[in-house]
Amino acid sequence: KFGAVVGDITILDNRSNFVEFTQPYAESGLTMVVRVKQEDRTWLFVLPFNTNLWIVVIFAFVYTMFVVWFLEHRSNPEFRGPWKNQLGTAMWFTFTTLFLSHREGLRSNFTRIVMFVWLFAVFVLTSSYTASLTSMLTVQRLEPKFTNIETLRRSNKKVGCDGDSFVKKYIEEVLRFHPNNIISVKSEYDYPEFFNNGTIEAAFLELPYERVFLNRNGRAGYIDSGVKHRFGGLGFAFPKGSPMARDFSRAFLKLSEDGTLNELEEYWFPSYSCSNPSSNPQCSNLDNDDRLSLKYFWTLFLVTGLTSTIMLVLYIVDLYKKFRRIPPLETTSGMDDSFWNGMKRLGMYYNEGRLDQSRKGPFSSPEGGNGEMFISSDEGYMIDDTPRLRQSTPSTDIQMHRTYSNTQTRVLRLAYTFPSRNSHVHGLSL
């Protein structure tokens, strides 16, 4: 007969019928330890951004590429030529901005403003991506192979426990595991061997023993699954009615209130569980919330998109104003000022830098052929499309304004020097 049982005695209801327990001096519970899930790192480089953010980044890239091409196409020779070359140049220019290695020169001030905002956005995105990817590569991110008991039970996985304690009965009656799937492990030192040879897929340990096991074997690929079933705690046992149980209970309460018990617990049972990353900086759970999402950058994309759109609109307005300064050509069928023809002429003016309507402004040449003379008020040149005149007559620069006055006189004098005087110069009968 003993007067007291001192040690890590788990307080249970059926045991309290025979002995007097003190107040618990430590927490107790049943936990599940499993192997670490093997992480597939093949696509790790895409994990810093979530799916929505990647979609927005790609859309912003394509939109910026289109805006840069549209703003530079008319004035920059590097953005002209066959459409395949134009597409390749625009894509290459926008892509190289991600690494700040673009070499193509910019001609338009509108493009410079767009690129200023875009380069700032690229700097923020690349810095955030690099920091997040570096964290993923340097910090050990662990996930349990199994996270709930139901999965183990339904798949008939074998689990291990201490066969000499109440734990085996608890797993069978409360957790409803089949007895054939419960493996008794005699010593805590045998668990790694049982895991390695595939005998068990999980181990059920009481909380203090789990902390000891993880501190000894945590770096070998074991982790707390987060499953916990609480018990009454750990206490001392005395015979029924013993006054010593009351005295020890008061002593435990005093040690708990002044923080002594917590200090002793952290000293002897330091927590290694990766389910609590703050207690162990060497491991961290990889959660979708850790990935960068659109909520962190939506303002940046909004500013970038608005800037590109505003510059695009201002450029189109400026282009249209220059186009309106050119008087419409008089044709054989009169003034063709329909909407669609106006759009065609505007597109031709944007793409070619001049109005080329040689099929609509004929005049008689000495050879009896048809030709046409064009004067661009924006570009400052004249084109004679008659085959012979193209070879024999040098190109002459003429600045044409909407208000003719003296300029009209100079144009008429120059036009009279050509072999044919029956000509049309932007609607002027000569």
UniProtKB/TrEMBL annotation:
Q: Which regions span the lipid bilayer?
A: 42-71, 113-131, 296-317
GO cellular component labels: membrane
User: By its UniProt entry, which Gene3D superfamilies does this protein fall under?
Assistant: 1.10.287.70, Periplasmic binding protein-like II
Which GO molecular function entries does the Swiss-Prot or TrEMBL record give?
ligand-gated monoatomic ion channel activity
**Keyword Membrane on entry:** yes
Q: What topology does the record note for this protein and the membrane?
A: Multi-pass membrane protein
Main location per the UniProt record: membrane
Which residues are in the Ionotropic glutamate receptor C-terminal domain?
A: 64-271
In which compartments does the protein localize?
Membrane
Kindly state which keywords UniProt assigns to this record, in alphabetical order.
Glycoprotein, Ion channel, Ion transport, Ligand-gated ion channel, Membrane, Receptor, Transmembrane, Transmembrane helix, Transport
What is the official name of this protein in its record? Glutamate receptor
Task: State the organism of origin.
Answer: Thalictrum thalictroides (Rue-anemone)
The beginning of the lineage is:
Eukaryota, Viridiplantae, Streptophyta, Embryophyta, Tracheophyta
